[in-house]
Amino acid sequence: MAAPQADKYTQFVSRGVGKDLAKRLGLPQPALLRRFDPTAPLLTGPVLVEGSTPGADALATALLGWGLDVRRHATPKEKLAAIVLVLDAIGDPGEFSVPVRSVGASLRDLLPNGRIVTLSRPAAAELEPALAAARHGVDGFVRSLAKELRAGATANGILLADGVEPDAASALAALRFFLSGRSAFVDGQFLTAGAPGGGGPVDWARPLTGRVAVVTGAARGIGAAIARTLARDGAQVVAVDVPAAGDHLAAVANAIHGTALQLDITAADAGERILEHAFARHGRLDIVVHNAGITRDKLLANMDAGRWDAVLAVNISSQLRMNAAFLADARFHAKPKIVSVASTSGIAGNRGQTNYAASKAGVIGMVRATAALLAPYGGTINAVAPGFIETEMTAKIPFATREVARRLNSLQQGGTPEDVAEAIAFLASDAAAGISGNVLRVCGQNLVGQ
Ligand code: NAI
Hints:
- The chain is 39% helix and 16% strand.
- The chain is built from 15 helices and 13 strands.
- It has helices spanning 8-12, 16-25, 54-65, 97-106, 129-148, 169-179, 221-232, 246-255, 270-282, 305-327, 345-348, 354-374, 392-395, 399-407, 417-427, and strands spanning 47-50, 70-71, 80-86, 110-120, 154-160, 190-193, 212-216, 236-241, 259-262, 287-290, 337-341, 380-386, 439-442.
- The model has no long low-confidence stretch (mean pLDDT 94).
């Protein structure tokens, strides 16, 4: 698959006269982001593992096992592709200073598109206050550092639940995602490794080999990119969309050697029809991606029942009904993976989108509550919340509004449908088996709202 293009402005200011002009005028200079290429190495430079706990040692050993060039101490002036900061045993805010300043001292040596990833533990309310303060301090540290980084570099964090060590399979899977080009547009975010995960070697180049995945809303936009990305990662894909989008749907399905299912997901029997199609045509169903979604924007004062009801019906009620059908079918009980597409509007809110934000916040609530229902089957459910993504939908926004919206994040550019798809492919893989009930924003650290 060809690397997705950056927007025209980003391309213009990346080289030559455009670069000089932007610099002189103090204009934003978004970087060309490093995107995932299965044939390229995970990192092209050394990774520094900061931290002095046994967990840091174990993690460094695991990274050596990936063939990475691992440093346990910074060498002056040596350029670094990534810095991994292990804070798994921090007990008091006073303990931050040394490891964090050590990272600070290496920042000037971070290569373009570099990565900083912390591993720490979640701050639960029942903890002793100083411990909770230390743990939650990491949150503010990472989110601020992400805003300081330049040249396409990102900072993200992994939260290790009790009993999950830094070298647990789920922690390593999350780390690999954050280090790789798969997370190009994920910045200032956290993933929680709630269980150790594990179970057999992972084919990192084609992690979905042998899996059957359903993608709703696959005829175009983000859904089509998800279908292509899951297929690239080895899955057989059932592409679902409304009959009116039949031609585009068939084109997407054919291009990836998948199958097309024309279906309105608001139909009462949508879940059953998906199960029937997947088992009849592919013999199994492992992954469901709830991507289909609509907007019907209006200020609440002008909102009619039709707009409100249509958005809620497509974006959340259909997902609840389909999930109930999937959960009721024993054939879907072998480590199933569900990923739902939410939106940053469902987190921060958006003027004119009370209906849409209610539906997308609903998705987040549903995902958190469904995680426990899938756990007995070794299954997971997570949400991905895209920010400003370059699609036909956002291309229709008037120029000035669009230009502001796409620059208002730490990476100063919109994401691509493929950026959303990469996050979904990761969460749908067995490597992510210990990650469930998470909401991962793919928004370049949108500066508006929460
Ligand atoms: P899109 O409008 O380009 O594509 C949505 C697809 O879903 C269409 O092919 C449509 O026919 C299909 N669909 C709609 N209702 C359906 C139904 N009842 N049954 C079956 N299929 C149906 O949208 P886009 O931009 O690709 O968005 C995909 C998802 O990402 C949506 O859930 C959207 O809310 C979400 N999202 C998009 C963002 C963006 O910047 N484009 C930002 C945040 C979230």
